[in-house]
Write a structure and sequence with these properties.
The complex is a heterodimer of chains A (475) and B (180). With 475 residues, chain A is an alpha+beta fold. Chain A has a single domain, classed as Orthogonal Bundle (Cytochrome-c3 Hydrogenase, chain B). Chain A has 16 helices and 16 strands. In chain A, strands 3-2-1-15-16 form a 5-stranded antiparallel β-sheet, covered by helices on one side. Chain A has a 4-stranded mixed β-sheet with strand order 8-7-6-11. Chain A is globular. Chain B has one domain: NADH:ubiquinone oxidoreductase-like, 20kDa subunit (Rossmann fold, 3-Layer(aba) Sandwich). The longest helix of chain B is centred in the middle third of the chain and has 13 residues. Classes of the chains: A alpha+beta (475), B alpha/beta (180). Chains A and B meet through helix 1, helix 4, helix 5, helix 6 and strand 9 of A and helix 1, helix 2 and helix 5 of B. The structure holds iron/sulfur cluster.
Chain lengths: 475, 180
């Protein structure tokens, strides 16, 4: 047999457009597998000329799954550019909205996107390996999962008027205060959703116990880790200092978000529209790191809310205190973060300041440049704007969460293809390749802001790179 | 009677319209009773059935050659094509790209951006799609139903799909197009 190329397209149950090509050697073994992110939109160019205060409404259209992250990062870049730090209640309200998004996004990913693999199995029939299959297999759990996502979305809607693309944060603060009844409604639903999250944590732990072989074989990668932390090195998702650790857990850097250009650069490969960020000092690919739930739990030392703190101890025990490199553990990390977010919602709502109407700082001074950083559900997000004296943008630079994981996803795809594809290619093997990507929960809409979207395809290529066969599935 | 088949796909958009679809929450279970959800970005079937589906839904604008393939395939395989959301209906936010040339947009993304290193170069692998002018779906193929909104409200999406699933053409007026 001649060498072949397999294409998986589109990659499903992830957010965005991608395809994978697996290049086979003449003996049928995998030579290399590539993850092609196949979308480019161009926000960094077409936002030029817009007003700084419009950006919190334009940039969420980069991604409808984490629009709140863009909305808030953009407002924060505006706070910085216009030198108008928001008053404390506004900071809290933004944090509350952000926790709503972490809950909805993590909840949806765990139960509705990755859940079918975990609960129905990688080899389940593709026609049922989805949320509809879940409805049939585990109706009670599905309803709970739907309610978890809904809880997060309702918090966003309560504050910002709508669930997707809310209207809330402005440079200097937010445009709406929280009422007593709104707060009470939120508080009344926390316990139920904490219980659902704990079910998720248990499912993942049981699954891990049963599939420890898969976990240890499935894309175990060495990389650095990057994310925001609190002053005590606790998990932080909204405001904090950026910390970078190496693969052994040693701290390499701590820096203010606004100085990111001194530490991070992006590499471009001709075969993907998604760029590859890396730690400048170590170069590419030596300086690659991961972000998102797994990156953040590895990067932080503790979690400062009581229930999630316990789960964090368990996390740290997985690899004797060292970073956990096993890609499938992203799912556990995601549920632990959802628990943290729910606990934070309670802490925020129990603080009387959350009801304050001191929500905007209108004293502005345009210094012409600003950076906003936040931990989006999928990782660290940077918005950087340069404006003229009228507040009209001259340049825009964005580094989006999923981009940081690009190297890891590409490497995971290659490693999983090498581990599982041998001999005749089965649908279940292809699904494992996809699962390697899905574990990182890529939001390719996001990462390809600048760059575009991602479902997958597997193609079979000969040594000259000619297409021999395309494995199409689920027709 | 067999349940009507519904497929959806996304192109140059933000996935927000599909999120708004999920925001119908528990009603999704009702919808699954009424209709057979085939390929969608959130299920595992990759493309609409070759034998055809009753309703095809597209989110996002048509902004590259990969999107063109999606739009034509969906048109060929569905009876009723729905353009869901402002991107599909008008071109939406991505259409702001049309104020610039494709070359300068790509150059900004892969060469000039402050964080891109000195080896930055516009990706050009043959596996990748080519960028085009940004268009609404109806500029490329005929569309039976336009559902505006960025994204359309989940109530509207549920109304539209449940009507279609029951063989009726939804009427969008009054409250249903009064989006914000
Ligand atoms: S219409 Fe709005 S919500 Fe829908 S894909 Fe376009 S930008 Fe996203």
């Amino acid at each position: 047999m001649v060498a072949q190329k397999i294409t998986i397209e589109p990659v499903t149950r992830i957010e965005g457009h991608a395809k994978v090509t697996v290049h086979l050697k003449p003996d049928g073994k995998v030579e290399h597998a590539y993850l092609h992110v196949n979308e480019f939109r161009g926000f960094e160019k077409f936002c030029e000329g817009r007003m700084v205060f419009e950006m919190p409404y334009i940039t969420p259209r980069i991604c409808g799954i984490c629009p709140v992250s863009h909305h808030l990062a953009s407002a924060k870049a505006g706070d910085d550019l216009l030198s108008c730090p928001p008053p404390k209640p506004a900071v809290m309200l933004r944090d509350l909205m952000h926790m709503g998004q972490i809950i909805q996004s993590h909840g949806m990913h765990f139960f509705e996107l990755a859940g079918p693999d975990l609960l129905l199995g990688f080899d389940a029939d593709p026609a049922i390996r989805n949320v509809v299959g879940l409805i049939q297999a585990a109706p009670d759990l599905t309803v709970k999962a739907v309610r978890l996502r809904k809880f997060g979305q309702e918090i966003i809607k309560t504050l910002g008027g709508r669930k997707v693309h809310p209207d809330f944060a402005v440079p200097g603060g937010v445009n709406k205060a929280l009422t007593v009844s709104e707060r009470d409604e939120i508080l009344s639903l926390i316990d139920e959703n904490i219980a659902t999250t704990q079910v998720g944590i248990k499912i993942m732990k049981d699954w891990a116990a049963e599939h420890i072989e898969d976990i240890n074989k499935f894309a175990v990668l060495e990389s650095g880790y990057l994310g925001l932390v609190t002053p005590n090195n606790g998990l932080e998702l909204s405001d904090g200092i950026i910390r970078l650790k190496d693969s052994q857990g040693q701290e390499l850097e701590r820096f203010e978000g606004r100085n990111y250009l001194d530490y991070i650069a992006e590499h471009v490969e001709p075969w993907s529209y998604l760029k590859f960020p890396y730690y400048k000092k170590f170069g590419f690919p030596g300086g690659v790191y991961r972000v998102g739930p797994l990156g953040r739990l590895n990067n932080a030392d503790i979690i400062e809310t009581p229930m999630a703190a316990e789960e964090m101890k368990y996390w740290k025990s997985l690899n004797n205190g060292k970073p956990v490199g096993n890609t499938l553990y992203y799912h556990l990390a995601r549920m632990i973060e959802a628990l943290f977010a729910l606990e934070r919602v309670r802490i925020l709502c129990e603080d009387p300041d959350i009801l304050s109407t001191d929500i905007i700082n209108t004293r502005q001074y345009n210094k012409g440049e600003g950076v906003g950083v936040i931990e989006a559900p999928r990782g660290t997000l940077f918005h950087h704007y340069w404006a003229n004296a009228n507040g009209q943008l001259e340049r825009v630079n964005l580094i989006v969460s999923t981009g940081h994981n690009n190297w890891a996803m590409s490497t995971a795809v290659d490693s999983v293809a090498k581990t599982y594809i041998d001999g005749p290619v089965t649908e279940g093997m292809l699904n494992r390749v996809e699962a390697a990507i899905r574990a990182h929960d890529p939001c390719l809409s996001c990462s390809t802001h600048a760059v575009g979207q991602m479902p997958i395809e597997i193609e079979v290529l000969d040594v000259e790179g000619k297409l021999v066969n395309t494995v199409k599935r689920g027709l | 009677m067999a349940k009507p088949k519904i497929s959806s796909d996304w192109m140059g958009g933000c996935a927000g319209c599909h999120m708004s679809f999920l925001d119908m929450d528990e009603r999704i279970i009702k919808l699954v009773e009424l209709a057979d959800l085939r390929s969608t970005p959130i299920t595992d079937l990759k493309v609409p059935d070759e034998s055809g589906v009753d309703v095809g839904i597209l989110e996002g604008s048509v902004m590259n050659t990969a999107n063109e393939e999606v739009v034509h395939r969906m048109r060929e395989r569905c009876k009723i094509l729905v353009a869901l959301g402002d991107c599909a209906v008008f071109g939406g936010v991505p259409a702001m790209r049309n104020f610039f040339t494709i070359e300068e947009t790509l150059r900004r993304g892969y060469v000039e951006t402050e964080s891109t290193d000195e080896n930055g170069k516009v990706p050009d692998d043959p596996e990748l799609c080519k960028q085009t002018r940004v268009r609404a779906v109806h500029e490329v193929v005929p569309v039976e139903l336009h559902v505006p909104g960025c994204p359309p409200d989940p109530d509207v999406i549920f109304y539209v799909l449940s009507e279609l699933a029951q063989g009726r053409m939804p009427e969008l007026k009054g409250d249903k197009i009064n989006w914000h």
